[in-house]
Design a protein that fits this description.
The structure holds three protein chains of three kinds.
Chain A (H helix, E strand, L loop, with lengths): L8 H21 L8 H16 L5 H22 L5 H21 L9 E2 L7 H20 L1 H11 L1 H6 L4 H27 L1 E2 L6 H14 L4 H17 L7 H15 L3 H9 L1 H6 L8 H6 L4
Antiparallel strand pairs in A: 1-2
Chain B lengths: L1 H25 L6 H17 L5 H29 L5 H27 L15 E4 L2 E4 H23 L1 H11 L1 H6 L4 H27 L7 H15 L4 H21 L5 H15 L15
Antiparallel strand pairs in B: 1-2
Chain C lengths: L3 H19 L14 E8 L6 H20 L7 E8 L4 H11 L5 E5 L4 H13 L4 E3 L14 E3 L4 H16 L3 E7 L3 H16 L3 E8 L8 H9 L4 E5 L4 H12 L5 E3 L6 H7 L7 E4 L8 H14 L5 H17 L7 H10 L2 E2 L6 E5 L5 E5 L3 E6 L2 E4 L2
Parallel strand pairs in C: 1-2, 1-3, 3-4, 4-5, 6-7, 6-8, 8-9, 9-10
Antiparallel strand pairs in C: 10-14, 11-12, 12-13, 14-15
Classes of the chains: A mainly alpha, B mainly alpha, C alpha/beta.
Chain lengths: 297, 295, 388
């Protein structure tokens, strides 16, 4: 049946990569941070793995190098931009993405625009989806914990969050590092599933794809990001007949989501099924009263 | 070299002015501005080649089309969210930003369907080739005229915003539209007018770009979409005179960087400057200080 | 575990499990021995960023199939095409190849459009022993993907040296400047080819000017710097549209030296946009519309009639690829992947429309496409005519 939906191994891999990327954006967006630096960290992860595997080093070394670069870089990025929010933060982090791309292009050691080819196709759909499941488990625990609550509070209003005792600077650093880790992992997965990477993949266009997945799937729940990623990755297959009209479709879906269902598919699911919401042990929205009752967050 | 900066600043400036105006009045970063710009360039080229119109006629219709497209962007992407009385940052700023992004994608699809994939250009008969020689340098007449026009527009717009009743209403609506409504200001009408002006500016920028470089295709919008942010942030998001400053500075960085820096690194400098500016002084040169946690 | 979370996670885990189970692969048909049609897979980017290339390529393929079938096909067996759009996306190209690989009625694939897609998708064809004809994958490393990957379009590193040498000899060039789009792999390899050839010929390189074609709109400062150092020629490897801007601004800056361009400059749309500023530009290609061979005249005329636009070099290479398949299978008794592969390996090269192309060895039993006589063209009034 899934073959009918056009799903085969490469598509499953693509969905898994998209899911991890979407979750990396959720990590910051779910805390109200409009930090759009993810394509830059995807590039770091991809290039780390790409360069090590084409130089006879094991994959895990590349993954570790990717993390070793991404984490401090993400922390630095957040601390430098901590006074910014909303549109300004978005533009600053977008400038970061452009800088990463430009640096890759200009650095001969990184092979510039030629890209890195011959990366081993070492990622299987099963491993990829195990990674997705593992990340989801992490988020499941996270969103139920004090940190998750703090993230939701920060998303609603930074002043109120501070009033409830949230150390917003520490939370911003935490979510940014989580986001960069996931983005770096997604980069490693991209390299290992498509055998070739080049700087033009890690662009504003990638960011648009990631944001669309999170918005359409539902930006208030981590599993919304996964749903959005799966749907948007399969969209070209589902709509193969109308491929000339693809811009209309991707744009149209995002537009409909924002105007009619800004909470995305996850929101619609939870809205329409309060019983399901209860069973999933989440409430449609955490109330301020409940938040304030839990004093130390 | 100064003349090169002047020429480039005219195109960048008109583009930036439209973008910053929408941000100042509607408090939204219009991500469909670049797509409007490209659409208008392609439309003008199409009208003069396939339809064989004279340039002045094509230019007039293109400017009107720019205004219409911008109004459509407002009605489709911004107004439905305004109408709900959004109060959170998401509803007021991020939601419209994302819906404008969606419209940008759709508009690019329109470009492809209406104008085809292959690059377009103006036919030789309409292309002005005159060059102005000033001192030791030369500047194409087109560039000189568009930059002069831009400066005039900035002065006119700034004066209109400061001194006329219309400008007062626009500023009132930008500050606090509910209070302004209490004073009888028709907020919606002002928003539509602002969008129309920004669309006309995008069209003028597109015309200037098209007549200067004479090639455009649906992906022309990607030349300015991210750089546009640098242009408006530098001068101060929301400041019309700031767009003049921002455009001149970025044009200067590009032109002198191409001359003096190691070749190929001038774009790195543009984005490096943007990043540093946001870290150190996000309100740009003319913007008002931004409260932490705002927008 | 019975918590709702675990059940939810279990559901997520079930997705790939179900997929793996249900997609064990389509039932592989028997090899199409002696059947009436020869099916080839055609995977090109006709939407998305690569559409500008892919649409012309698809036109070239369709025209070739039509002409071959009108002439009786391949020894009586008609060609049928299974066309898929990969939208310039690596994952989609992989997905399409993954579908075609187990389908044994498909004896070969033409495509994909971009090298990125090729690196991602061709390995799947290689493990299925499915021949792939690379018509526009000019990146280094493509033939090395595997012996089933046959590069049919001559990559720029094999083409541009001949062009540069010819210009140096013709105009007695002793100094030159080089400009290239640093963000484009083909412009970069084009620059490297120009640069190496010039250095080997003892030409002094006065300026090397990279630029980012996505972000740079104005080239006047760079062109003025170049002019100030008085080179005798300017070699430009552009990505796409900006080539027209460079040509016009070079003229405006008063550069009156010969300009030599890479393959991007063979685009009619680009030449027309540059107008009279393009006159005199020299490019090398493996095909020209003014080649008078009978097949080429037919190709040019029918292309214009069917698609209402002039034929392009990309379309010509795609056209040639179908004829290559025809030649490779013409002496086979059964149409299968093995016989197509064998036929291809035995071909020393091909010559249908455009230059004669040789398959040269690049070691390890792999081959690449090269040409001993590139077509040298000069731009004149928006068209490319043979260099006088």
């Amino acid at each position: 049946m899934l073959s009918f939906l056009g799903v085969n191994d490469p598509v499953l891999l693509g969905m898994a990569v998209a899911a991890v990327s979407a979750l990396s954006f959720f990590a910051v967006f779910g805390a109200g941070q409009f930090n759009v630096s993810q394509p830059g960290f995807v590039a770091v992860g991809a290039y780390s793995v790409g360069l090590t595997t084409t130089n006879h080093m094991p994959i895990f070394v590349g993954v570790l190098i990717g993390l070793a670069i991404s984490l401090p870089l993400a922390a630095f990025l957040v601390l430098v931009t901590q006074r910014l929010s909303g549109v300004y933060l978005a533009i600053a982090t977008l400038a970061f993405v452009e800088l990463v791309q430009e640096i890759i292009i200009l650095t001969p050691a990184l092979k510039g625009p030629l890209g890195i080819y011959g990366i081993p196709l070492a990622l299987s759909p099963t491993s990829a989806w195990l990674i997705v499941v593992a990340v989801c488990l992490v988020f499941a625990q996270l969103m139920r914990s004090r940190i998750g609550l703090a993230m939701v509070l920060l998303r609603e209003d930074v002043i109120v969050a501070r009033g409830a005792g949230v150390n917003d600077r520490r939370l911003k650093v935490f979510t940014a590092c989580l986001s960069a880790t996931l983005a770096s992992a997604a980069g490693a997965m991209t390299a290992l599933s498509t055998s070739y990477i080049s700087p033009d993949e890690f662009s504003f266009a990638l960011l648009i794809a990631i944001m669309t997945a999170v918005i359409v799937g539902g930006s208030e729940r981590y599993w919304g990001a996964v749903i959005g990623a799966v749907i948007m990755t399969d969209l070209p297959e589902l709509t193969r007949a109308a491929s000339d009209y693809r811009p209309f479709m991707t744009g149209g879906i995002l537009l409909v989501a924002i105007l009619l269902a800004p909470e995305g598919i996850a929101g619609v699911v939870l809205r329409g099924r309060p019983r399901l919401a209860r069973r999933l042990n989440v409430s449609p929205g955490i109330t301020l009263a409940k938040a304030l009752r839990r004093q130390r967050v | 070299m100064t003349l090169d900066i002047v020429a480039l600043a005219g195109i960048y400036g008109m583009y930036a002015c439209g973008l910053t105006l929408v941000f100042g009045v509607l408090e939204v970063l219009n991500l469909a501005h670049a797509a409007t710009f490209a659409f208008c360039t392609l439309l003008a080229m199409y009208l003069t080649t396939t339809q064989a119109w004279p340039l002045w006629q094509a230019a007039l219709i293109t400017v009107l089309a720019g205004a219409v497209v911008a109004i459509a962007i407002d009605r489709i992407a911004f107004w439905p969210l305004r109408r709900r009385g959004a109060v959170t940052a998401w509803g007021k700023h991020i939601g419209p930003l994302l819906s404008s992004l969606a419209l940008a994608t759709i508009l690019l699809g329109v470009d492809q369907v209406a104008f085809g994939l292959d690059p377009r250009h103006f036919p030789d008969r309409v292309l002005p080739t005159a060059t102005l020689h000033l001192g030791s340098g030369a500047i194409p007449l087109v560039s000189a005229v568009s930059t002069a026009l831009f400066v005039v527009l900035v002065i006119a717009l700034t004066a209109a915003l400061r001194k006329t009743r219309w400008g007062l209403e626009v500023r009132a609506v930008a500050e606090q539209s509910t209070t302004a409504a209490l004073f009888g200001v028709n907020g919606e009408r002002r928003f539509i007018e602002t969008m129309a002006v920004s669309g006309a500016l995008a069209a003028l920028a597109g015309l200037a770009y098209g007549l200067t470089f004479n090639i455009a295709s649906p992906d022309t919008s990607s030349q300015l979409d991210v750089k546009g942010f640098a242009l408006v942030v530098l001068g101060g998001l929301g400041s019309v005179p700031g767009s003049l400053v921002g455009a001149t500075v970025i044009a200067a960085i590009e032109v002198s960087g191409a001359k003096w820096l190691p070749h190929g690194t001038e774009q790195l400098l543009v984005f490096g400057v943007l990043f540093l500016l946001l870290v150190v002084r996000p309100q740009g040169i003319f913007g008002t200080k931004i409260a932490a946690g705002a927008r | 575990m019975k918590s709702p979370k675990a059940r939810f996670v279990g559901a997520i885990l079930a997705v790939p499990a179900l997929a793996a189970a249900s997609c064990g692969g389509t039932s592989a048909g028997a090899s199409n021995g002696g059947g009436k049609t020869v099916k080839i897979g055609v995977v090109l980017s006709t939407s998305g960023n690569g559409a500008v290339f892919g649409v012309d390529q698809r036109n070239g393929v369709n025209l070739a199939v039509k002409m071959i079938n009108a002439g009786g096909g391949i020894n009586g067996r008609l060609i049928s095409v299974d066309f898929r759009d990969s939208a310039y996306d690596k994952t989609q190209a992989q997905a399409i190849f993954a579908k075609m690989a187990p389908d044994n009625s498909i004896v070969g694939i033409i495509g994909p459009t971009s090298s990125a897609e090729a690196f991602a998708a061709d390995p799947l064809a290689v493990s299925a022993k499915l021949p792939v004809l690379a018509i526009s994958n000019g990146s280094a490393g493509v033939p090395q993907i595997g012996k089933y990957v046959h590069r049919v379009g001559v990559p720029e590193p094999m083409l541009l040296p001949g062009v540069a040498k010819a210009v140096v000899a013709r105009d007695h060039i002793t100094s030159a400047a080089v400009m290239y789009a640093s963000n484009d792999p083909f412009a970069l390899t084009g620059y490297q080819a120009f640069s190496k050839t010039l250095k080997d010929a003892g030409v002094k390189i006065t300026d090397v000017v990279p630029y980012d074609s996505d972000k740079t709109v104005n080239f006047t400062p760079q062109l003025q710097t170049i002019k100030g150092h008085h080179p005798q020629a300017l070699f430009v490897a552009a990505k796409s549209n900006e080539g027209a801007v460079i040509l016009r601004q070079a003229k405006q800056t008063g550069l009156s030296i010969p300009l030599v361009g890479n393959l991007s400059f063979t685009s009619t749309a680009l030449l027309q946009a540059a107008g009279s500023a393009a006159n005199g530009l020299i490019v090398g290609a493996t095909w020209s519309a003014s080649d008078t061979s009978a097949l080429n005249q037919q190709f040019v005329a029918q292309y214009q009639q069917a698609y209402d636009k002039p034929a392009t070099p990309l379309a010509a290479t795609a056209f040639n690829a179908v004829y290559v398949i025809k030649q490779a299978l013409s002496s086979a008794t059964t149409d299968s992947r093995a016989s197509l592969e064998q036929g291809l390996e035995q071909m020393p090269g091909y010559h249908f429309i455009g230059s004669a192309v040789d398959f040269v060895s690049v070691g390890n039993g792999l081959r690449d496409a090269a040409t001993a006589d590139p077509v040298l063209l000069q731009a004149k009034d928006g068209k490319l005519v043979p260099l006088g």
